[in-house]
Write a structure and sequence with these properties.
Number of helices: 2
Shape: elongated
Number of strands: 0
Strand content: under 5%
Number of domains: 1
Largest sheet: none
Helix content: over 70%
Order of helices and strands: HH
Structural class: mainly alpha
Distance between the termini: 22 Å
């Protein structure tokens, strides 16, 4: 196993951990601000669009 494959594996794991932390932060923000169901859904949709944009960019650069 070379250093490049180890680095790429840790990069993917780190990004997944950051995404999970961001999901928790958005959930906590919606809960503490007493957002309605619609507001909570909008928050999560915006976060998921950002995650999707990053994923598409990563896939575009890989292929």
């Amino acid at each position: 196993m070379d250093i490049e494959s180890i680095e790429s594996s840790f990069l993917v794991i780190s990004i997944m951990a950051l995404v999970l932390i961001m999901l928790f932060i958005v959930y906590d923000l919606a809960k503490k601000s007493q957002a309605s169901k619609f507001g909570t859904i909008v928050l999560f949709i915006c976060l998921c669009l950002g995650i999707a944009g990053f994923t598409f960019k990563l896939l575009y650069l890989l292929f």
